[in-house]
Design a protein that fits this description.
The structure holds 2 protein chains of 2 kinds. By secondary structure, chain A is an alpha+beta fold. Helix content of chain A is 49%, strand content 11%. By secondary structure, chain B is an alpha/beta fold. Classes of the chains: A alpha+beta, B alpha/beta.
């Protein structure tokens, strides 16, 4: 019972002036705590104060002290602390009300009772330890409180649900209930169960109303006011023991600085890796800074561009909204600044974060990319818009887009159907048709258009092949830097190109070279034989010279006689005539011109036909005349008989 | 008629002007009250006023309106703004002010838009920054504050019009501020400083409210000289304004819509709104318009 326990204290830091009547007035804040027995306020406690866990609402402090007790759980090598704040209202020299805090702190989870006993002891001595700048304290000189009595626990009243069932917190103590600090603490312990206890006694209004177990209002009116607030719980619940203020400050810092500060980026990285912080929670924080208003009202300020860019990096589902917003701003200065800001943010994030945090960040970037691709192949956005989004707004997404897509295409190419779907960075849904079907998939044409705009020639070639077919020569050569060849394997798929017209001719020629050569030889042979044939008069239809021709016509009567003697006068005369005409191979030959004794001028042409036919028939010493018993006569007679 | 002619076929979205503002000034110079009055924009007169709407963009802006409703309109004073150890814990009021357009030669080509929107991010510094911190060269907090100031495109220097006895003090503070800003800044940025005389509901100020430069030169000659020196190398970066967050009551025989009350035995009296339901501040938007555009708005100067 005679144990001594150290109780530390510290107070709001002010400059003050003691007035003639002994009272004092504040002359402004000093930006640090005063009358502290601690060299350094434990960080966990400091952050709890920064998060307004002990704060009464502005204008709601009074001369009658509000008392707030809390356990600050252990964290980052800091032990549990029990802290009680007494809040009173002072005045400054301009007579403005100032909420002033005096904090008592004790190590340990169950030390609130010690502080309460100490306060009660002082109260009994007529000296309630409220804020008093004149009560000097020295660092390293805590109160060594000797425990003389035991904390008397009060049983909870019948109306207080302590059965462990879920009940909404905080519970407001009805104004009719007679309560003191000992009671509220005893009851709060019962209600809190295993959770850190937090109660507020004699308060008009508190800043962190959802963070308490039990609240005792200063008056009936305050009770009603708080009841009204509690009737509308926030959509996104408060996170216990999370330093929300630090995260809020980080977001504000990032919004307000053209160059992201490393501390702020660190805070974002930590929160991003904290699974307790849900997308809804993040969304609440961004909305609080005006993200929704910026979109709705089209507020195109630098602060908002950074806020929306950050939101898109944390909440990928908002990426397209951000892209659209930034592009619609049509403010090239804003767009350029925002691009640089995102690049700087990423650089600092990667430099100062753990591998796990960087992976989480990368995951979000990929999620953003997936959204753009899905919308693009789903035709919800067109390739021109997607290009704009990536080149003007989502610039750090653009930087990793080729690498992500190539990774997946290679995976698909290696093992087209049997790979693990989870290994696909872009996810199975996007590539499903590419995996399932080998045929052309026109749905991927927008990806060809996108990558062509982004000057990602290989990927553009890949999706051209997938969605359209063989590539034109120039596209193929540009993509793969090849001067020769018609196909290449890229990411496990054969990418081939069409041949140009000149190449088609050359190819045809190459493929048909034997035929061509054969034909050429044959033609040459033909020409050669013709030339030779002409020279030897062989097999060549010969034409008589005009002189020979004239002589043959003059001697046509001899031919008449010879033919007549060959056909004879018998019954075979016509038949023989026909046979001779057939042998002479000229159906224009007239029988009459042979049979007529006297030839007229008109018949000259017919005689000439006979001369030409005979000349052609005669193989040696051709003269166009058939005389009885010359070689031609004999040959003709022989053929006629043979026939 | 001409306006209709010009605006034919043009988009109806308001033309936008943005400003990142820091409100500085001595303790109790009326910084938070000024901001709360801007955000609340009480008893608006959308027919005759050039101001169409004033809306909060972020949560801090909404809380500021709540403060105006719950405290100022209830006849209470606001608490002094604490000096935050973390500069980013400072409230950053984001507010959108939509104005009906006024004729401007400079913006002639943009006359198609019938509205002008002023989007401001406004940080309300604790008065201790101006009264104390600026003199503590070795305090790391000063560097944080100055770094933050460098991000601003406009400074609202609020000066209690009745505190002329502190001209030398303000002049010193201002000189320190401008020196520190100069030292911190790598590149000189065009940053406008609006000197705003507050509490001009006081009769001696009210009668000259349309001549702000004259009042400043008469009441704060030392501070004025500092500003003139600053302006020599940076033309058109300083302008003077008069405001009253509480405004006046009546038009024929106007009297301040403000009363002094004494809550304790110290004898110190605090100034609160006298008749909240006809609360009509004066001159609040004019300095913001100038910080955003670099032009004075004749109507807002009279409003």
């Amino acid at each position: 019972m005679n144990d001594t326990i150290e109780i530390h204290e510290f107070s709001t830091g002010i400059n003050f002036e003691i007035l003639a009547d002994g009272t004092w007035v504040s002359k402004g804040f000093i930006g640090a705590y005063m009358n502290s027995t601690l060299e350094q306020i434990p960080r966990t406690v400091e952050r709890a104060i920064a998060n307004k866990y002990f704060a009464v609402a502005e204008g709601k402090s009074s001369d009658s002290p509000a008392i707030i007790g809390r356990v600050i759980p252990s964290q980052d090598n800091y032990p549990d602390y029990s802290v009680i704040a007494l809040v009173t209202c002072g005045r400054d020299e301009y007579s403005r009300p100032v909420s002033l805090y005096r904090y008592f702190l004790c190590e340990g989870r169950y030390s609130l009772e010690v502080i309460i006993l100490y306060i009660i002891q002082l109260y009994k001595n007529g000296r309630l330890p409220i804020f008093n700048p004149t009560e000097k304290r020295k660092i390293g000189n805590p109160i060594n409180y000797r425990l003389n009595e035991v904390f008397r626990k009060s049983p909870p009243p019948y109306w207080l649900n302590t059965s462990g069932d879920t009940h909404p917190l905080p519970i407001l103590i009805p104004p009719s209930e007679s309560v003191d600090v000992e009671k509220i603490h005893s009851w709060a312990i019962e209600v809190a169960g295993d959770q850190p206890v937090a109660w507020a006694y004699n308060v008009k209004a508190v800043e962190d109303i959802w963070g308490f177990t039990l609240i005792h209002s200063a008056s009936e009116r305050d009770y009603e006011d708080m009841q009204r607030i509690l009737a509308n719980p926030p959509v996104v619940a408060r996170l216990a023991n999370f330093d929300e203020q630090a995260l809020k400050s980080a977001i504000k810092s990032l919004m307000n600085n053209s160059q992201p500060k490393a501390e702020a980026v660190r805070e974002i990285a930590k929160a991003l890796n904290n699974e307790e912080i849900t997308p809804e929670y993040w969304a609440k924080l961004f909305t609080a800074e005006g993200a929704d208003s910026a979109i709705k009202d089209g507020i195109y300020s630098e602060q908002m561009s950074r806020l929306l860019a950050l939101r898109a990096l944390i909440l990928p589902k908002t990426l397209l909204q951000f892209c659209d917003w930034l592009i619609v701003s049509r403010n090239s200065h804003l767009i350029k600044d925002c691009q640089q800001w995102q690049k700087d943010f990423k650089r600092i994030f990667v430099a100062y974060s753990s591998t796990e945090e960087v992976d989480r960040f990368q995951y979000n970037l990929i999620e953003g990319i997936k959204i753009i691709i899905t919308q693009l192949i789903g035709k919800e956005i067109n390739p021109a818009d997607a290009t704009d989004f990536l080149t003007k707004a989502a610039v750090i997404h653009k930087d990793i887009l080729p690498e992500i897509v190539e990774h997946d295409l290679e995976l698909i190419g290696k093992n087209s159907k049997n790979h693990d779907r989870n290994e696909l960075k872009g996810g199975y849904e996007i590539w499903r048709d590419l995996i399932k079907y080998k045929s052309h998939q026109t749905k991927y044409k927008p990806l060809y258009q996108l990558f062509e705009s982004l000057k990602q020639d290989k990927l553009a070639a890949y999706f051209y092949q997938v969605s359209i077919g063989k590539l034109p020569k120039d596209k193929f050569q540009k993509a793969f830097q090849l001067k020769q060849g018609y196909s290449i394997n890229y990411c496990g798929r054969e990418i081939s190109r069409k041949a140009s017209l000149s190449e088609k001719i050359i190819t045809w020629l190459t493929q048909n070279i034997q035929t061509i050569l054969f034909s050429i030889v044959a033609i040459l042979l033909l020409i050669g034989s013709a030339v030779i044939g002409y020279k030897v008069g062989y097999n060549t239809p010969r034409i008589p010279t005009s002189e020979t021709f004239a002589r043959a016509v003059t001697n046509f009567d001899k031919t008449q006689d010879a033919i007549k003697s060959l056909v004879g006068d018998g019954k075979n005369k016509d038949e023989n005539f026909d046979k001779i005409i057939e042998i002479l191979d000229n159906n224009k030959l007239s029988k009459e011109v042979i049979l007529k004794p006297k030839n007229t001028k008109d018949e000259e042409k017919q005689q000439e036909e006979w001369v030409k036919a005979i000349y052609k028939y005669q193989q040696n010493q051709a003269d166009g005349i058939i005389r009885k018993d010359n070689e031609s006569f004999k040959k003709l007679r022989e053929e006629l008989t043979r026939e | 008629m001409f306006n209709n002619l010009f605006s034919k076929g043009k988009k109806t979205e308001p033309e936008q002007m943005n400003a990142a503002v820091r409100v500085i000034g001595d303790r109790a110079s009326g910084k938070t009250t000024y901001m709360a009055a801007v955000a609340r924009w009480p008893n608006a007169d959308p027919v005759n006023s050039p101001v169409q709407t004033v809306t909060p963009i972020n949560e801090d802006g909404e809380q500021l309106i709540a403060k105006a409703k719950n405290l100022l309109e209830q006849g209470e004073q606001l608490e002094p703004t604490p000096i935050n150890v973390n500069i980013y814990d400072i409230k950053d009021y984001s507010i959108r002010i939509v104005l009906k357009s006024q004729f401007s030669w400079r913006r002639l080509n943009k006359m198609g838009n019938s509205l002008v929107a002023l989007n401001i991010n406004c940080k309300d510094y604790a008065g201790e920054f101006f009264s104390d911190l600026l003199y503590q060269a070795n305090n790391p907090l000063l560097k944080d504050y100055l770094d933050d100031c460098l991000q601003a495109t406009g400074i609202l220097l609020l000066v209690d019009g009745m505190s002329y006895r502190r001209d030398a003090e303000y002049s010193n503070g201002l000189e320190k501020f401008l020196q520190q800003l100069d030292r911190s800044e790598i590149e000189v940025t065009q940053r406008r400083i609006a000197v705003v005389l507050t509490k001009c509901e006081q009769p001696e100020l009210w009668i000259n409210r349309n001549q702000p430069e004259k009042i400043v030169s008469a009441r704060f000659p030392m501070m004025m000289r500092n500003l003139q020196t600053w302006q020599q190398t940076r033309p058109k970066t300083v302008e003077y304004f008069t405001t009253s967050a509480f405004g006046m009551l009546g038009s024929r025989y106007p009297e301040p819509n403000m009363k002094f009350i004494s809550r304790d035995r110290s004898g110190i009296k605090e100034a609160v709104l006298k008749t909240p339901h006809i609360w009509k501040p004066f001159g609040l938007i004019a300095p913001i318009y100038w910080l955003c555009t670099g032009e004075r708005h004749k109507q807002l100067d009279q409003e």
